[in-house]
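tl;dr need the bound structure. longer version: we got a ligand (phosphoric acid mono(formamide)ester) that a collaborator sent over and nobodys looked at where it sits. i said id run it. heres the input, straight from their email, havent touched it
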Amino acid sequence: MACKDYIDTNDFTKEELLDMVDLAIAMKKMIKEGGEYPLLLEHKTLGMIFQQVSTRTRISFETAMTDLGGHAQFFGPGSIQLGGHESIEDSGRVMGSLVDILMARVDRHKDVADLAKYSAAPVINGMSEYNHPTQELGDLMTMIENLPEGKKIEDCKLAFIGDATQVCVSLMFIASKMGMDFVQFGPKGHQITDGGLQVENKVDLLAIGQENCKVSGGTITISDDISCIEGADFVYTDVWYGLYDQEEEGASYMDVFFPKYQVTMDMMNAAGPSSKFMHCLPATRGEEVVDEVMDDPERSLCWVEAENRKHSIRAILVYLLKNAESQKKAANPAVAADAKAHINKVLSKF
Ligand code: CP
């Protein structure tokens, strides 16, 4: 049985993740080129919990549900009782019985994991301090749509530049799962192996990636020597200022990262003459990346990457809800007919 929730891509096989991308690309084509909507989630409701702000993730989930014939409810920071007056356990039980599927962007990874534990409905991790798995699938889709001539995804090299954010860690997970060569070019103290962003029980992030590599044949390199990015097909970066309550003052992070880790056209060319630029966004222009790279129509994939959040999230929603449906007892038409007759009897009194 496939995993009920989408908390971590390490819970899925390479084939399952590629099936989701395949579905995402087919639905993108059907809607954008065919002008038709696959109404696969009629009468389904998504509950969206956001403990942090969001542009791309929130809009993508809400639009995806509309596109598929379903509906999304938004619960912004402080708008529901999650983990405050009501425990995560109780909220998970209740919310999982009120909606068909939940997504949560949380302050602490444990909260989304606990929500999944207690919710009968599937739960999607919309980003925690540990990982960003919906971003991962959108990024995988973007790379697959933009493969260099003659290469498969497992032949490609992905270079992440800068801080070991949860996006960096997530890219290591998906790249190692796919059998790619993954590189983090970042300063000591901000490398994946430094453990700054590990979850409460101190997961060994690199060990997870290395386990993936044993199966897939991928490789992982972490270095502060720029030569490690040579031959990269995709050059990816994220903001430098830390995450959530670990945000750093500008002067301190600029001292660490600037100018060595700023993605410039020289750095893109050091990777290779046709390397493509990626960024999860939002970007801080002039810090981790310069305008010339971000706005280059040939080299920058960051805008299509942002749009692919919506296309890939549609596939995650369909995958989980179809899987949940297949686990349920089949609908009983006789029960529906009885209930309908009873409703009509009651209504005849009004
Ligand atoms: N990349 C990403 O998750 O963007 P948002 O924070 O705007 O959702």
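gonna send this back to them w/ a short note. The pocket of phosphoric acid mono(formamide)ester is lined by residues 54-57, 127, 135, 280-281 (CB under 6 Å).
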